[in-house]
Amino acid sequence: MRGWCAVACLLPLWSTAQEPTAVPDTVPLLKQVISVESATSDLQALERWILGTHPAALTDDSLLIIGAVRRATHQLQHPQSNWMFARTVAEVMATLGDSHTGLNWRALTQEIAATWGRFPEAVHLDGGQIRTASTQERIDSVNHWRARAVLENARSMCSAESGARPSHYRRAATLWPWVAAVPGPGVGEGEVLAWTESGAALPMLPPAPPPAARPSRDSGVRASFAGRVATLTIPSFSKGSAGHFHRRINRFFRQVQRKRVEGIAIDLRGNPGGLTSRMEALAAHLMAEPDVLMQRLVYRNTAQARAAFAPEFAAARPRQRERWAQRDRWAAWRLEVDTLAEGATWQGALRALQPHRKRFTGPVAVLVDGSTASTAAHFAMWADQAPHRTALGEPALTSLHGTGAHAATWTLPASGLPVVCSTMRVWVTDGGDWNVGQWMPGVVCPHLDAPETAMEWLLSQ
After folding, report:
1. Is 74 exposed, middle or buried (0-12, 13-18, 19+ CB in 10 A)?
2. Cα–Cα distance between 243 and 139 in angstroms, integer?
3. Torsion sign over Cα 39, 41, 44, 49
4. What's the DSSP call for residue 333?
5. What separation in angstroms does the CA of 228 have from each of 249, 254, 460?
6. Structure confidence by residue, pLDDT tens digits, 310-348
7. pLDDT tens digits, one per residue of 275-324
8. Cα(199)–Cα(384) distance, rounded to whole angstroms?
């Protein structure tokens, strides 16, 4: 999504007047060189794909993409590395400015780490400065790049709104070393160095081999109980298996009833979102009455948009689809939109979500910060509207009305760069503006003060 355009500002312009030679498969994707003709072809294919995928393609917003592609095509004059072309692609896709449209940087982080290495020790960000965790020394420069410039580019890379929202330092803490490790002007391979304010050199270490992929049953959900207040921490709505997540949530609310808890703090700080079904399962335990949660959706039925959904529903027999639709509102929605003509638009609200039969009726405080986004931000916005519930912390990464809920992924045919595009627009609170403003929680407080502030609020209810 997100700010690759800024990352590339750190990189030297790899260009030459000669056509590139064939690139062996062993060269990392981001170091491969793409010709002007291939880059032009990729941009044209990207334009067609976005216009067929994004629901804004039927509005004046489509002119933003068309114009951005034309400008980018005119700027292609020499062969370049995929790093540089990634900047161009990111700038084109950022013109639509939503959180689910841009380079799929999550698919690239493993290669970034494997190609350019890691910082040798933990660092933390303090007042916009990079400091080593061991000595607290301020890092002055990395690879001939000023540390401040490195940090700003990492912040933009982490931004969940393609640079259209204020950047956030905390998520950059884990990603900036990868950006910093890109060789700077006059620095050869294997010579990556950082310098502290005192002039000491800190070499970059070679990357460790990637860990073996293992299926995880751990959803990251944690619960704690302190007197009359319970705290539920959810770092993501997509980590681990769905079954384990739902069992953990149900167990928590059974404990809440058994312990006669009077207030709940739900910590969504750092939660980037995830599966809507998991967010809805949490909301159902807190509803006073049936609620649509999201007041308006806009979806355009195209082959590209349908590609965002898992194929199980489309492959199922009609009787199986009907059974799913009876117990799942998204399945009911699929039954309806799948009957639309190709290219037709669906607007409206989903069938209301039903409250859990043993819902919690006490006060609820939802903790958010600058990296709370997508479905996590949706939940916080919804919770902030009801009596005896509030959201508190720092402004979350969402607009006043919400962000895209589904996205399709694709790979550019010539460069191989992975991209992602929103297939739906969502209004948590219905409104005509899209991507305007930043959502502020009901109680604004610093990130680290949020737990204490939540406890004080809950005990005062």
Report:
1. exposed
2. 45
3. negative
4. H
5. 19, 15, 12
6. 888 888 999 999 999 998 999 999 999 989 999 899 999
7. 899 999 999 999 989 999 988 898 999 999 988 888 888 889 999 999 99
8. 49
- Strands, DSSP E only, in 375-459? 389-393, 407-411, 418-422, 424-427, 443-444
- E strands, 24-71, are 33-34
Cβ-based burial of 16 (10 A; exposed 0-12, middle 13-18, buried ≥19): exposed
The answer for 109, left when phi > 0, alpha when psi is -120 to 50, beta otherwise, is alpha
Cα separation, 134 vs 177, in Å, equals 16
Q: Residue written as tokens 């639509």?
A: 96
Which of left, alpha, beta for 435 (phi over 0: left; psi -120 to 50: alpha)? left
> Can you give the pTM of this predicted structure?
0.76
Q: Which of 99, 181, 168, 98 is nearest to 139 (CA)?
A: 181
CA distances from 366 to 241, 384, 385 (A): 23, 8, 12
Residue 452 dihedral angles phi and psi, to the nearest 5°: -65, -40
Adjacent-strand bridge partners of 291 = 353
